[in-house]
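Page 37, continued from 36.
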């Protein structure tokens, strides 16, 4: 705006305002009042009857007055267009607007702007009069009048209506004129360097052409000034003024006075002031600058919301705290005040030190050091330059040495303002960073500070918002002068007594405290670089009083780095401290220790009193340590580094450090047998030493749920490794070919390693491998033929390739094969697996199998016991399946196209066809007429059968789950509504050779919203006689629920047709209790079916029928008696701990010779 204003008024001006009006319409009232208001506010205003000299030609005098004015106000009234002089004035005014950028402000005084714009109404009548008998020359002039009227009426204007107060409009016009004539500017000083580019960035954010309210945030550390900002109201030092009584009230009053250009009525309180600001300024286009804001309250009371100001307004806010801008909803992005670059800093410093913008030659070296010290901070450059002006080079040298210990107070006092605005925890974080952690990795520092209960992430945000730190490339950076300010804060109270400081970081101060035993409880942290300090002994007495010590680091980073990163091998013993550095009874007094880093720790164990319950990180690089601890539990410990500790015999048991994230064991000389790192979710790589030393004997390596990215090729040295698992290693990308050298490997699991790019081609060389899991591995799989010892192979959800399984019968030991949710058809795998005569379990769930795609050769799987074909799309399955003479379980659930099931082997004990085609035809082998096959069953207390994923059946006999649209089969004669049914037993039932057993059946529906009382009421059959000593339902229900929870440990990993992990799916448990009734009560058996399927998530077990065939041979001889006159079957269902309602149930005695069964079905 500064440049625009300068250009606009650059022509010679005598008058501030020229008034153009029709005298007879407004001279004696509106125009007169407006003229008086302008003159009263010091605005030099021209109107014709006062300013023209007597005898002067009116037309030329008026034209000259227009040219010599900065602003023209045109008052359009009813008869304005009747005056040729008024119209000529208007043409001249528009000419000056174009050529001189004169400001033109129209006022429509009781006329419609559209009448002026289009020359209608009285304006149309006036032009009709002007055009009467007009010649060509006059017509040209009339066209200029029309053009001028149209252009002027399109400008921003005021309109005065009949019911509107003239005084209000006049006040607005006057304020606007004053604002345009007298823009307020902030003094910018004389020595301005590097401002042009910064102002260009700020100007782009202000965006003066955007016609909406915009709040612009400007933030930076103390000592970086905001200059050259023009505005209607500049509220300087808001932070400082707000600290005084009524400070905010005075700032509100100043804001109003600045903008309204008059003394506003007195405001009694800040809440009233908020309302006045909003009411007075909501229609005004304003520029407001708030300088040095440090509290949200200041913004709320001074510039509450965008709608407090008129469209096109700009609110500029300077602050050291970025969070205030976020909290107040200031428009983004913010303008970050940048430090000066080296060239700009040198120029600014020279202006103050030498009164010229270039340095003197004999000061060049000192000047470079001084500019480096200030690091682009303008305040520091100004203060130091002024202080050193006209001083000799030797005096400069002396000042530099002093500044290293005692920063200039003028600089520190400004920088401390941000520190004093922090709370206690934030101050602690700031001082820890300033003294110990500048330049360190953010995650490392966050881990340590969180261990100190400092809420690191929240603190980092505040420090970053207040420009006290910068986080770049995940490193924490801090301006040197801010760091020096932190040091000064630590020292200031006891400047010459380091034993009373909270933090010690300089070797000479640490040495002073430890050698003179002057440490106190004030000390919270010690960082000592032994490579730059004198030799000293660490004694218990030196640490005795430090009972608040949180952080202790005794390091030799230079030596360690040269050892690790040098091309030449350096002996780790060079880092090891001598035993002379420690007394034999050395102890740590503090129980507050969170971080212990001790390079070259010389003792074989930690002190006996070592309290590590609060320890977050333990780093004992190049130590003599042999063993850390045995049985203690350290829940807070996240990092252990024992690199180059040659004498270490045993690493901590992972169970003692359950939250361990990083374990570093480089270059060890010891033997391990068992290493489990499950759940170390931040573990990205393994210790190199585990692979390098051939003497190492690790048999088990579990890396599940770690962040490991690749296995190094040196893993081949683990010759004794038998079990290697990397389940759910989401970042694992590479597996080296050398893994195929692990000839002792028995189990290899890469399940759910979704980013794995390639597997070694020679996996078949793992001759001892028994279990291989490649579940949900997306990369192409190599040929697995030749794994002669392989017994279990999991390829579900994997990226099958043509040759992964071949027809060469080299997988002749394979018993379990999971191909679910894989493309088995396109790869031709189904036909090739039919030769696997040893296969016992085959999972083909959700393989998109269509009609005819199951090969009839499946009958060659002579050892097959479990076959899961669920979630497929065929109409039928091959009849040859009846030849699978060992088949026990068949899964056909969710096969919506399946019309019928062929005859099945007599060995089958579990058929799950729930949620399949509603008209599914069950084979006759599963009808009562075929029930005689159960005569050969042997009674077993642990009888159970299961499918690959689900369900799991516990109990004797046969279990069938079918779609339940038709309800309980009609041939089951004894049916009852509710959850239990009772039948009478015939005389000598146990001795009848034709009696085969019982058919049991139940149908389930959702519980809906019925009350628990109503539901339980429905469980009881009121016709039954309580004298028969039946157990209370609740008692059995609780028993059933408890037993079901302990009955099965099986967990499915299948949730839906979309094929994703479902370990969190709750099981649906269907249960049946068989109880003999007579003079007494006897529990016969408990049958249970547990299943995990997504359809149970939706509606429990509803829409399905559970059929059980319970054979007589399963009934123990002790129950073969006529005293048991009745048999009761009670059915229950539980889903996710909630009862599933049994709608109906039934029971039927089955006999071998009964013509009634010949034509029955399960429908």
């Amino acid at each position: 705006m500064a440049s625009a204003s300068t250009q606009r008024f650059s022509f010679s001006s005598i008058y501030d305002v020229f008034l153009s009006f029709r005298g007879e319409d407004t001279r004696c009232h509106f125009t007169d009042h407006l003229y008086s208001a302008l003159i009263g506010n010091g605005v030099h205003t021209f109107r014709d009857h006062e300013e023209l000299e007597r005898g002067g030609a009116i037309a030329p005098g008026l034209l000259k007055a227009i040219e010599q004015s900065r602003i023209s106000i045109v008052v359009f009234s009813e008869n304005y267009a009747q005056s040729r002089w008024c119209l000529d004035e208007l043409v001249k005014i528009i000419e000056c607007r174009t050529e001189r950028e004169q400001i033109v402000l129209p006022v429509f005084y009781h006329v419609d702007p559209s009448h002026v714009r289009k020359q209608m109404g009285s304006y149309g009548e006036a032009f009709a009069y002007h055009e009467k008998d007009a010649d060509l020359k006059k017509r040209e002039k009339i066209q200029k009048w029309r053009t001028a009227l149209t252009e002027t009426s399109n400008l921003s204007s005021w309109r005065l209506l009949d019911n509107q107060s003239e005084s209000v409009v006049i006040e607005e016009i006057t304020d606007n004129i004053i604002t345009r004539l007298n823009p307020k500017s902030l003094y910018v000083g004389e020595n301005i360097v590097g401002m042009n580019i910064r102002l260009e960035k700020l100007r782009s954010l202000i965006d003066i052409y955007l016609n909406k309210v915009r709040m612009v945030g400007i933030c930076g550390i103390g000592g970086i000034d905001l200059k050259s900002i023009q505005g209607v109201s500049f509220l300087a030092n808001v932070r400082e003024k707000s600290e005084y009584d009524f400070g905010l009230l005075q700032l509100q009053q100043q804001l109003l006075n600045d903008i309204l250009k008059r003394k506003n009525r007195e405001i009694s309180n800040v809440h009233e002031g908020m309302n006045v600001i909003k009411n007075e300024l909501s229609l005004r286009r304003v520029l407001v600058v708030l300088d040095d804001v440090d509290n949200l309250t200041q913004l709320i009371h001074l510039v509450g919301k965008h709608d407090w100001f008129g469209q096109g307004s700009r609110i500029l806010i300077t602050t050291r705290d970025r969070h205030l801008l976020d909290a107040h909803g200031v428009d983004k992005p913010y303008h970050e005040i940048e430090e000066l670059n080296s060239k700009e800093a040198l120029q600014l410093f020279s202006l103050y030190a030498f009164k010229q913008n270039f340095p003197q030659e004999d000061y060049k070296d000192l000047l470079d050091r001084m500019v480096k010290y200030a690091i682009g901070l303008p305040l520091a450059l100004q203060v130091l330059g002024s202080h050193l002006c006209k001083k000799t080079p030797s005096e400069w040298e002396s000042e530099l040495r002093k500044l290293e210990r005692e920063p200039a107070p003028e600089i520190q006092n400004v920088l401390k303002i941000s520190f004093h605005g922090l709370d206690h925890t934030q101050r602690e974080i700031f001082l820890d960073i300033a003294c110990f952690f500048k330049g360190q990795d953010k995650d490392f520092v966050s881990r340590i500070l969180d261990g100190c209960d400092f809420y690191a992430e929240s603190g980092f945000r505040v420090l970053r918002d207040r420009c006290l730190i910068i986080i770049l490339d995940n490193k924490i950076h801090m301006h040197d002068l801010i760091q020096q300010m932190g040091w000064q804060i630590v020292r200031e109270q006891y400047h010459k007594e380091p034993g009373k400081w909270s933090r010690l970081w300089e070797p000479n101060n640490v040495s002073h405290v430890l050698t003179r035993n002057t440490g106190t409880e004030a000390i919270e942290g010690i960082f000592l670089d032994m490579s730059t300090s004198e030799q000293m002994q660490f004694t218990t007495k030196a640490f005795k009083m430090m009972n608040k010590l949180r952080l202790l680091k005794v390091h030799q980073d230079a030596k360690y780095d040269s050892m690790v990163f040098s091309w030449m091998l350096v002996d780790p013993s060079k880092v090891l401290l001598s035993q002379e550095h420690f007394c034999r009874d050395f102890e740590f007094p503090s129980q507050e220790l969170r971080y212990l880093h001790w390079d070259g720790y010389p003792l074989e164990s930690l002190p006996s009193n070592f309290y590590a319950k609060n320890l977050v990180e333990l780093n004992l690089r190049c130590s003599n340590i042999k063993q850390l601890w045995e049985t203690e539990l350290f829940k807070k410990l996240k990092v252990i580094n024992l690199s180059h500790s040659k004498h270490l015999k045993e690493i901590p048991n992972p169970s003692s450090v359950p939250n361990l994230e990083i374990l570093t064991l480089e270059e060890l000389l010891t033997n391990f047998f068992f290493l489990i790192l499950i759940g170390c979710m931040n573990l990205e790589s393994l210790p190199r030493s585990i692979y390098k030393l051939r003497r190492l004997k690790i048999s088990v390596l579990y890396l599940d749920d770690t962040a490991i990215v690749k296995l190094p090729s040196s893993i081949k040295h683990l010759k004794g490794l038998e079990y290697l698992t990397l389940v759910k290693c989401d970042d694992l990308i590479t597996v080296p070919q050398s893994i195929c050298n692990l000839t002792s490997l028995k189990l290899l699991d890469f399940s759910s390693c979704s980013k794995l790019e390639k597997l070694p081609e020679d996996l078949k060389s793992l001759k001892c491998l028994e279990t291989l899991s490649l579940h949900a591995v997306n990369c192409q799989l190599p040929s697995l033929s030749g794994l002669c010892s392989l017994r279990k192979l999991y390829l579900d959800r994997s990226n099958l390739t043509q040759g992964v399984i071949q027809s060469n019968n080299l997988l002749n030991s394979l018993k379990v094969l999971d191909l679910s949710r894989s493309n088995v058809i396109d790869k031709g795998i189904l036909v090739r697996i039919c030769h696997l005569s040893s296969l016992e379990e085959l999972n083909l769930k959700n393989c998109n199998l269509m009609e005819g795609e199951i090969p009839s050769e499946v009958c060659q799987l002579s050892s097959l016991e479990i076959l899961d074909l669920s979630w497929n799309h065929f109409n039928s399955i091959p009849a040859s399946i009846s030849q699978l003479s060992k088949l026990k379980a068949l899964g056909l659930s969710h096969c919506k196209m399946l019309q019928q099931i062929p005859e099945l082997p007599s060995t089958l004990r579990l058929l799950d066809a729930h949620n399949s085609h509603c008209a599914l035809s069950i084979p006759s082998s599963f009808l009562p007429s075929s029930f005689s096959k159960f005569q050969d069953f042997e009674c077993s207390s642990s009888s159970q059968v299961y499918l690959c994923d689900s369900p799991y059946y516990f109990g004797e006999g046969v279990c069938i789950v079918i779609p339940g649209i038709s309800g309980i089969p009609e041939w089951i004669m004894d049916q009852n509504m509710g959850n239990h049914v009772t039948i009478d037993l015939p005389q000598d039932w146990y001795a009848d050779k034709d009696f085969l057993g019982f058919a049991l059946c139940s149908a389930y529906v959702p519980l809906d919203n019925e009350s628990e009382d109503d539901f339980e009421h429905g469980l009881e059959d009121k016709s039954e006689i309580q004298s028969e000593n039946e157990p209370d339902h609740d008692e059995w229900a609780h028993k059933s629920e408890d037993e079901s929870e302990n009955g099965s440990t099986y967990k499915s990993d299948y949730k839906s047709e979309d094929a994703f992990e479902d370990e969190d799916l709750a099981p649906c448990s269907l249960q049946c209790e068989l109880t003999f009734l007579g003079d007494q009560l006897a529990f016969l058996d408990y049958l249970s079916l547990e299943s995990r399927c997504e359809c149970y998530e939706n509606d429990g077990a509803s829409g399905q029928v559970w059929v059980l065939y319970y054979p007589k041979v399963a009934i123990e001889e002790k129950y073969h008696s006529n005293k048991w006159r009745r048999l009761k079957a009670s059915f229950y269902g539980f889903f996710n701990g909630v009862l599933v309602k049994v709608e109906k149930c039934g029971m039927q005695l089955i006999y071998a010779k009964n013509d009634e069964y010949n034509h029955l079905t399960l429908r």
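The two ends are 88 Å apart (CA to CA). Flag for discussion at group meeting. Residues 896 and 917 are 5 Å apart (CA to CA).
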